[in-house]
Description:
InterPro entries: CoA-transferase_III_domain (IPR050483), CoA-Trfase_fam_III (IPR003673), CoA-Trfase_III_dom3_sf (IPR044855), CoA-Trfase_III_dom_1_sf (IPR023606). The protein has 2 domains: 14-212 and 331-348, Crotonobetainyl-coa:carnitine coa-transferase, domain 1 (Rossmann fold, 3-Layer(aba) Sandwich); 250-320, formyl-coa transferase, domain 3 (2-Layer Sandwich), CATH 3.30.1540. The chain is built from 15 helices and 13 strands. The chain has a 6-stranded parallel beta sheet, sandwiched between helices. Helix 1 (23-33) links the parallel strand 1 and strand 2. By secondary structure, it is an alpha/beta fold.
Amino acid sequence: MTSPTSMGALHGLKVVDASRVLAGPFAAQILGDHGADVLKVEAPEGDECRGFGPPFVNGSSAYFNAVNRNKRSLVLDLGKPEDRERLFAMLQSADVLIENFKLSTLKSWNIPDAGWFSRFFPRLVHCRITGFGDYGPYGGLPGYDAAVQAMTGLLSINGEAGGEPVRMGVPVVDLTTGMNAAMAALLGLQARSRTGRGQMADISLYDSAVSVAHPFLTNFLHSGKVPAPTGNQHANIVPYNVYRTRTKPLFVAVANDRLFAKLCKQLDVSHLPQDERFSTNRARVVNRESLEVELGKAFLGVDGEEIGPLLLADGVPAAPILDIQSVAESEHARVREMVVRREDYVGPGNPIKLSDTPATIRRPPPELGSFSASANESVFL
């Protein structure tokens, strides 16, 4: 990360983060990292993911800290009319609202529907994050990452071939939804620059999960064949798998015939690309099992630690399987600033690297209610 004094691309943008747990806070942090002034509105008990530990750092979980830097925390009990009025007062000058309130909660506040925010605050870009949206057969149901993975087919295609479905270890649905919400905020602001009007962005975990079921969804739509788990293999590309060597196993992904020929040359099996069963990717997919036997034998005869760098240098995607510790301590992660250390804050870096207005860490994750202001005082900087 660059100097904390640098102005980001979103400097001057005012964001109210009234969301909880992961997708919404992650979206707000993306905006905050790039310069937005983000005010996190929390209930008196705080965002529940403050307790998602161990480990804990300065009273909050590492989980919470990873998605709530560059924010200030204001405690409001939105069950009280006077605190709701404070929220609404903030929205008069805010540019973006990110929330994941239940529709029933809004109705208990005498808000008839989610579109009310855009009608009442016409310049506000309102990012509404829900599990399944507010309409449709599942409309209004609560959404949880693993449950949505299950209901969108993602679990069904993850795991070993012939084995049981396995949850994706990374909360990919929440994180993808957070990225979509941040993108939606920027799209809404761009539209506002032309029209002068804000709008509501309807972002659901369900929609986000279905959108990343690639290529399995599109394969089914065009073939009618229901996909099943394939382990480390790829439905449309061969070879694409983990291979055992004399030393470390390697993940190898070969996306075209030219790279396949290079791989075979390094493995000293240059005859394989001449075999009509393996000469094209289409043929290799059809004859996958036969080819895997041949490649399995060839890889067992080489040193993975030696051939891995040689394959990469030759343009063939090949990589050792590293654990999280190895990644966190790697020189490349350090140089790319993907693990950041600033004073007493340690966390994941920002992957969006702008040349003129880079992301910065200006504030550590806030203590609950660390920001306070009188009812008549402006809360934005």
